[in-house]
Amino acid sequence: MSKKVAVLLGNEFEDIEFTSPKEALENAGFETVVIGTNANEEVVGKHGEKATVQVGIGEAKPEDYDAVLIPGGFAPDHLRGDAEGRFGTFAKYFTSNDVPAFAICHGPQVLIDTDDLKGRTLTAVLNVRKDLSNAGAHVVDESVVVDNNIVTSRTPDDLDDFNREIVKQLED
């Protein structure tokens, strides 16, 4: 049975940070499942890419997935605005149980809501780094950072390194 990766997605995601890792994972034989606010809702990226939410966050069970992917753009900030904090709670399953968690650009914003970043080494786009630091993470400026089960990258320029490492995490 192939491994399944939950992709947390909302409107105004960074298109290439969704499509490129999704393609890399699927080309490696893994299944991706888009999780958003409501099932069957269409979400639109900053540059017009469209995706359909397959599973609403209210029905999503993190233990059904082998990893979580959080693309950047403005979507992570929108997802954090969920009144019940369901996206942070979903992501916490991965960070606290050593299950792979992948986040690029603004994606690590969702990881802040897990309260599991103290002492972890991460990277992100420049304007998220201070938030990560305030959450207790050691923040570095590198194309890809692997800290045990958490893989983070800064921007679309880092996608080759990011994609290589997320696939590697699931192949091990």
UniProtKB/TrEMBL annotation:
PROSITE patterns: PEPTIDASE_C56_PFPI. Keywords: Hydrolase, Protease. The keyword Protease applies. It comes from the Bacteria. It holds the Pfam family DJ-1_PfpI. Belongs to the peptidase C56 family. This is Protease I.
